[in-house]
Structures are given as structure tokens and as C-alpha cells.
Design a protein that fits this description.
It is a single chain. It is built from 13 helices and 13 strands. It is about 45% helix and about 15% strand. The strands form three sheets. Strands 1, 2, 3, 4, 5, 6, 7 and 11 form an eight-stranded parallel beta sheet that branches. Helix 3 links the parallel strand 2 and strand 3.
Length: about 350
């Protein structure tokens, strides 16, 4: 074999092994706010890649037996900086995934608590990441945009000006993370997610109608939607959300032209979603009774432009609307049977 061929062969092997961690020690990962919508599934996904003992789930809530037995779980209060320090030191944490936050509709009901959890908590974890040289991932959202933003499509860089405390706190997190990157060299990474759809019960977000509709229709045969039938919002299945998070965390820094990227899979309306569901559940009804969440939705993007993520680190969604509906019908049915109601 010529020297050139040997060099090319070595390059191919190294490239293929980049994300497998065969030749290097896997990262030790701490997930805060782990019992929210994404945390448990994120831990399962990352434990499958890096090993069960290397992914620590944390929250201030008592976990179910299933969650506790699935892998390491600890108590962590994001408002307790010294407590967080102890966890990072004792568990030799390398990466921090910060999910702790009050979502849009819940945050509007308790603004002071949302400020403490979403803003003070962010201050703690980002300072912790700087102090110990951690790679830190903080999710953002379509809620980081406001009525002055272009809605169809919404590009990666544009005016934001959100009108919810949830959105304001996420813009604050984005800007603080970018500042720490430029000022201190912190490896800060952030994805703006659309509505993330999973079989877990809804958690208080404005896009959660797309979860609640499956639970209500499969249990009761009817759903009353709090948004208008033609309200278009970006969405993605949790499988795509977790794959995007994982691929982005592994992406080499020299591929990243930004620290914050839009990611999405599709956009649809409640009417379009219910039309697809009829193929799987022919006998159900839906009515519409818009409430205060309609005003929130009307200030958010309708279509998300994630072309920069596709260009820089090769992001590409896998689950389309047809598959999303099939997955949700199957997964929510299984959850109903497992819970006995």
C-alpha cells in the first residue's frame, strides 16, 4: 500500500470513529431538570451511546422506580450553586445539559418563579461550566421570537423581542452563553427547538396541544383545542430532537459557525394534524376554544429556517408528519395500557 493510500485509509477510520468513542474515554454527562419532557428520554438516548454510568439524571422531584433503576439519579437544585459544584467535582462531570425551566404557559402564571428558575438557574450553571471547563448545552425555543420577528420563515439571525417570560429568559440564556463563549472561551451550545412531541403527558407548553390531542382522543374520543384550527407552528418528534441534540454535542468546534442554531422537522396546524389522525382513529371529534395561549402562538414562528444547522453540522430530520402520527398513536396507546387507564 502506498503512503498516500495508508494516509487516506487512516483518515477514513478516524472519521468513522469520531462519534463512537471507541478510542477515547466517553464524557461524563449531568442532565439538570431531568424529569421534564426531554430529560428521561435524553438520558436513555445518551446512555445507549456512552454507557449507563456516564449519564447522570438529576432533578428536585422524586423519580419513578423505572427512572431510578434505569441509571444514576441524584437530587440537584439549580438554585444551589455550592450543591452543583459538589456534584460536578464528585462525579467528574464533563458535559452539562441544562433542561431546568418553566415552560411558556406555566411561566406566565408565576413570573417571579420563572425568573428564579429560568434566569438565576441559568446564571448558576453557566458560571459552573466556566469554572470547571465543561461543555454546556442549553436548549432554546421558537418562544425566543416575538411578534416583530419574521414568521414564515424565521431565520437563525433576526429580531427576537419575545412577549413571554419564558421567551425572555431564553433570549437571555442565548446572549449570556454567546458572551461567555467570546469572553472566556466557554464551549456553549444551544439549539432552538420547535414544539417537541412525545408520548409523555403535556407539560404546560403552548405547542403541547399536539401531545394532548393524542391522549384525549385515545382516552375519551374527543379533544377541545385551545388554539385556532389554522394556527401553524413548527414541530418535531422527540426522536429527532434527541438526535439533533446528540449530534450537535458531538460536532467538532471547527464546524460550528454559530453557538445557537434553529432546528426543526415540519410545520402543521391543529386541523392538519387531526386530518392525519383520522386515518388511524376514524371515530373522534375535535372542537376549538382558543384561550390565552392563542396570543402566545400568534407571536411565534410558523416555519423555522434551519438551513444553517443543515449546512454546518449536517442536521437532517428523519420523522415526517405521517410517521409522527403513527408513532404517537402507538406510543400513547402503550402508555395508556401500561398505566391502566
Amino acid at each position: 500500500m502506498t503512503l498516500l493510500k495508508k494516509a487516506c485509509s487512516a483518515f477514513v477510520v478516524n472519521t468513522r470513529r469520531y462519534s463512537s468513542y471507541i478510542d477515547k474515554k466517553p464524557p461524563k454527562i449531568l442532565i439538570t431538570g431531568g424529569l421534564g419532557q426531554l430529560g428521561v428520554e435524553c438520558a436513555k438516548h445518551l446512555r445507549g451511546k456512552y454507557g449507563k454510568e456516564n449519564v447522570i439524571l438529576s432533578d428536585i422531584i422524586r423519580p419513578s422506580n423505572e427512572v431510578f433503576n434505569d441509571g444514576p439519579y441524584i437530587f440537584a437544585d439549580i438554585l444551589d450553586f455550592k450543591g452543583l459544584q459538589k456534584i460536578v467535582v464528585n462525579h467528574r462531570v464533563d458535559w452539562l445539559i441544562h433542561f431546568s425551566a418553566l415552560l411558556s404557559a406555566i411561566g406566565e402564571q408565576n413570573v417571579p418563579l420563572a425568573v428564579r428558575v429560568n434566569i438565576e438557574g441559568m446564571h448558576n450553571v453557566i458560571e459552573l461550566a466556566k469554572q470547571y471547563g465543561l461543555r454546556i448545552f442549553v436548549p432554546s425555543t421558537i418562544g425566543a421570537f416575538g411578534p416583530d420577528s419574521p414568521r414564515n420563515p424565521t431565520p437563525n439571525i433576526t429580531v427576537q423581542r419575545p412577549r413571554t417570560i419564558y421567551g425572555v429568559s431564553k433570549v437571555h440564556a442565548e446572549l449570556l452563553g454567546e458572551y461567555y463563549f467570546h469572553k472566556f472561551g466557554l464551549d456553549f451550545r444551544c439549539l432552538r427547538f420547535p414544539g417537541v412531541i412525545s408520548s409523555d403527558p403535556p407539560g404546560g407548553g403552548t405547542t403541547d396541544y399536539a401531545i394532548a390531542i393524542f391522549h384525549d382522543v385515545l382516552r375519551k374520543g374527543h379533544y377541545e383545542c385551545y388554539l385556532k384550527p389554522d394556527t401553524r407552528l413548527p414541530m418535531m418528534h422527540v426522536k429527532d430532537a434527541l438526535r439533533a441534540l446528540s449530534e450537535f454535542l458531538e460536532a467538532p468546534n471547527d464546524l460550528l459557525n454559530r453557538r445557537i442554531y434553529n432546528v426543526t422537522s415540519m410545520s402543521f396546524t391543529p386541523e392538519e394534524l387531526s386530518d392525519k389522525m383520522i386515518k388511524h382513529i376514524p371515530d373522534f371529534t375535535i372542537t376549538y376554544k382558543p384561550d390565552s395561549r392563542q396570543d402566545i402562538a400568534d407571536s411565534w414562528p410558523q416555519v423555522f429556517d434551519d438551513s444553517e444547522a443543515r449546512r454546518d453540522w449536517n442536521w437532517k430530520p428523519h420523522v415526517d408528519l405521517e410517521e409522527l402520527v403513527s408513532l404517537m398513536v402507538k406510543e400513547v396507546k402503550e402508555k395508556i395500557v401500561a398505566n391502566g387507564f
